[in-house]
Amino acid sequence: MKKILIVLACALGLTHAQAQTETEKKASDYNKWSVELSGGVNKPQRPFSASNYYTSFPSPFVVDLGARYMFNNKFGLKADVGYNHFIDGGNSANFDSKYYRADLQAVANLGRIMNFETWTKTIGLLAHTGFGLSRLENSDNHIKDKMGNFIAGVTGQIRLTDRIALTGDFTTILNSNQNATFDGVPVEYESGFSGVLFNGTIGLNVYLGKNTKHADWVVLSQDSADLSGLESKIADLEAQIKKIPEKQVIVEKQINNTQAVSDKDIVKEMINDKYYSVYFDFNKATPIENSTAAIDAVLTYLRKNPSANLDIIGYADQVGSSEYNEKLSKARANNVKTIFEKAGIASSRLNVVPAGADTSIQKDSEEARRIARRVTFKIR
Fold it and tell me: Which residues contact 172 (CB under 8 A, 6 or more apart)?
């Protein structure tokens, strides 16, 4: 019974520490505001007054300026204004029109919804859609046509820093009740969304706020309810451990008392059964801070048992190619080996085993993949 409780204490203690490290910020701990500026090209699709009126493909130019607020790391709102300039292209008849719009749009962070963080930390994807007002002007024909619009698009992101992201956007705009063609000719009134316009832009997101990261890039792996449940389990476990007489609590003796052979056997068994593991962040070969206790426990055992040798077994999750995961698992094991060598353990006692991707861990679960990214040990 005492051994089971000791094992559970170690396992749940590591899980709690891991949760504190991996679980991302509360709502107040990341930035929510950003401003967006972009420019590019457009292509008005319809209406035109005749077949000999058209723009080049694509045609310059578009300017867009917006402000965005994220309620959390997945959903938000943005307000933006845009300006388009339409001129004749190729062999088209001459015209010169201007188009203005203002819109309020809902935003979905597809990068977080689709768990992009499992394979990249620098690429994001936003979807946006909403409604607004538009105005088409052509001074030659004295056109000032006011319209409503529906707008929808997708925005790719490349994070350059925690404050700036490069964006590429493709947007479709549908104009309702458009009473003039894009080349500036009045047309018979049409209800519904009769005007079609495409915009393609490149720009920047500038993130505002005092915190390090913006909601676009924050991963909320567990909510407060999950943490409360975990803390409750740990509290129950601690209560059970306190009921055990002090003389039965042998964790310290297992590591520090070389006279107790049975205690040493228990520590060896726990090491070989992977209760002491070193964990890593996604695509990283440097152990997380909370793995220090596991390294210290194994290091102490090796110092107390100079005849013991150690296999250092590196693993990766199943994201990525087998060749890459083999290389990453080896790098993780080698880095742990270096820690032991710097602590005075002879290299001849340490054997690196790159195990590649841990196929025993569920690939589709983020929590399972987090457990898979580890180094385990085997005493020989």
Answer: 151, 152, 153, 196, 197, 198, 199
Number of Cβ within 10 Å of residue 75's Cβ equals: 14
d(CA 282, CA 195): 46
Tell if the pTM clears 0.70, that is, is over it.
no
CA distances for 220 relative to 21, 101, 113, 252, angstroms: 12, 35, 11, 36
Do 109 and 214 contact (CB within 8 A), yes or no?
A: no
pLDDT in tens, 115-158: 898 899 899 999 999 999 999 999 888 999 999 999 999 999 99
Read off the tokens for 352. Answer: 């690196």
pLDDT by residue (tens digit) across 344-362? 999 999 999 999 998 887 7
pLDDT per residue as tens digits for the range 11-53? 444 444 444 444 434 445 899 999 999 999 999 998 998 888 9
241 within 8 A of 5, measured Cβ to Cβ: yes
Helix crossing, 292-304 with 322-342: angle to 10°?
60
Using the 8-state DSSP alphabet, how is residue 46 labeled?
A: E
Q: Which helix (H) or strand (E) holds 329?
A: helix 322-342
**Beta-carbon neighbour count of residue 232 at 10 Å?**
10
From residue 175, alpha-carbon distances to 131, 135, 184 in Å are 10, 10, 15
Cβ-contact 190, 145 below 8 angstroms: no
Question: For the chain, which domains are there?
Answer: 27-217 (2.40.160.20), 250-379 (3.30.1330.60)
Burial class (CB in 10 A: 0-12, 13-18, 19+), 107: buried
3-state secondary structure of 232: helix
Distance of CA 334 to the CA centre of its chain: 27
pLDDT digits (tens, 9 = 90+) for 258-275: 444 444 478 898 999 888
Distance (Å, whole) CA 24 – CA 211: 13
| Residue labelled with tokens 């297992």 | 254
Q: What is the mean pLDDT of residues 321-345?
A: 93
The encoded tokens of residue 313 equal 């077994």
Q: In 3D, which of 361, 301, 300 has the Cα closest to residue 325? A: 361
Q: Nearest to residue 283, comparing CAs of 232, 350, 328, 250?
A: 328
| pLDDT tens per residue, range 206-247 | 999 999 999 999 987 543 344 444 455 545 545 554 544 444
